[in-house]
């Protein structure tokens, strides 16, 4: 048995240990089922490749390692969302749940590095500064409005980008399925009608903004909205499920002014499993319908 085959067998053992760890996590049944499906698929892929004649520099090794990293990050993400708080001014840049080049050819490595490491980091830094001024230092009354604006801009930027990274995957199913598909068909008629509306929404963004699929607990329906910058044109009380960054820094290096190609290619990396997970949580919030 070759060294690489031994390594793959060790990966299978690691995956089985992860399965046991998932069962001990204090998360919902839906989250456990989702994580278990992911690790089961990963173990199956490892076993299939253990029977192939592959080398250390084979691309599949990087793919398997990247997918394992994504699963572990998803476990940490779900665990942290249930057990911890973030102190004022203590926000951190989340690690990408895949490699920088994983979304190619649809989104380039260069864009991902610039977008994540520079732009998102700037929003984290800006949010931390605003929160420190508002909640730790207690600002002069004349500066409160300024820091509230900074909190809204950078806080919305940080939150939207965090959704955005996990809304994408190199292993996209390309189309929605499960509960989110049923709700899309119930509220928009068909998947195609929803996609056309979402594309038009993204194209309509002037300058800087986002296209957003959201759940509205006030009417029990999905909706689509564009956000200007990060914090403007929002609808209070909605829950974003799927977001597309339409700021130029998200696509210009690769697509220049061709926004339409960026929008269309982005559907190839949408993580519908993540959208379904967000939808399952969002539906649990129930308000009186008006």
Number of strands: 3
Q: Briefly, what CATH class of the domain at 178-282? A: Alpha Beta
**CATH architectural category of the domain at 178-282:** 3-Layer(bab) Sandwich
Percentage of residues in helical conformation: 55-70%
| Terminal-residue CA separation | 66 Å
- One letter per element, helices H and strands E, the order comes to HHHHHHHEEEHHH
The assigned structural class equals mainly alpha
The CATH topology of the domain at 178-282 is given as: minor pseudopilin epsh fold
Percent of residues in beta strands? 5-15%
Mean pLDDT, nearest integer?
A: 90
The main β sheet shows up as:
3 strands, antiparallel
Count of separate DSSP helical elements: 10
What overall form do the CA principal axes indicate? globular
Strand line-up of the largest beta sheet:
2-1-3
Q: What Rg do the Cα atoms give? A: 20 Å
What oligomeric state do these chains adopt? single chain
* Full CATH superfamily name of the domain at 178-282: Iron/manganese superoxide dismutase, C-terminal domain
Poorly predicted residue ranges: none
Family: Belongs to the iron/manganese superoxide dismutase family.
Enzyme class: oxidoreductase
EC number: 1.15.1.1
Protein name: superoxide dismutase
